[in-house]
Write the structure tokens for this entry.
Amino acid sequence: MKMINLEDIGNYESTLIVEESKSLQATINNVLRVIQDKPVIYIALIKPYVSILPRLEGDGIETDKIFFVDCVTEFAGGDVSEKQGNVIFIHEPTDLTNITITVTQFFEKIPGKKYILIDALRILTIYNTEDVVSRFMQSILEKASRNDAKVVAMTTKGKHTSLTNKVSQFFEKIMEVE
Amino acid sequence: MTDEINIEATGKKLEENDITMVILPKLTYSSSILALLRIISEQNESICYVSANKPEKTFTRILEVNGIDRKKFLIIDCAGVGDRGRQLGDGAETIFVDSPRDLTNVSIGVTDAINRGVENIVFDALSTFMIYGEGLVVVRFAHSLISKIRTSERKGVFIVLKDEISKILLDDLCMFIDAVIDFEANQI
């Protein structure tokens, strides 16, 4: 299986990466390695922030400029009572309105060029319909283009291709594992 | 690769990763699960074992016959309806759930186990829940439980049988977990 060449990801306003689910985390880390010179708004849907952070740091990725929108911790009953680093907690992955509001807040807080990383669209479709996810994705892309932000969204290969087909038209570049 | 090396490698992988998926072949399921439980009980003082395949009574007997300390296990029995009136021995804790279809009560049971301080939660087997529930519901259930285990800083072992029904689960499950142990493929 060939690895995706991520080096030219910065050349595109929006990229959809279609990856094998078992390789997704490694690819996310590789994406972050490529874009880490700019601030990154990381919409975390797979794992809670507390699980992501040590693994990124262990993988030698600078986390100072990563701003997390954590959609997992609160619905899993984790502690969200105290302010923790660059993270905002979302009630649950169905709360797409609050994800959008939080991303907008980060846009206002972070001037200049930046990235939004979404891991992974497939998780959103576990909790929402594909049409809702598709509209959400379109909204994020519109807001990103008005706020000097490039978007990298991850999704998985396999049986769930209808979402990929629905949203792929919104992206400038599709990168898929061969 | 000898069995001894496999056990060593399996133990190392379980120790290094928070959430592990273990794929077991159907034919050697009984012996594989025993080897796995032996490793997990050596690594942990308290384990929550979610049993969708065997009632607590059967599971307890298997542990005792094979010299594995039953007192280390808090069992969530989803397969033993009708057995709940049985007198349990000292330290032999069990939470009874009506059926693997009752995902809400399984989830409540796991939360209870986490609050009681278990170190590791073993699901035997996640693929059994697929027989009783719709695919997407079980995937959501798995994502929710794995997230719960992560946020409470415990470990989880999710057993999946190598069969047709599990294929639906595997794609999504691979996204949530940290490592895979495939007994058949010796990928450990």
Notes: The first helix of chain A runs from residue 24 to 35. The radius of gyration of chain A is 15 Å. The mean pLDDT of chain A is 92.
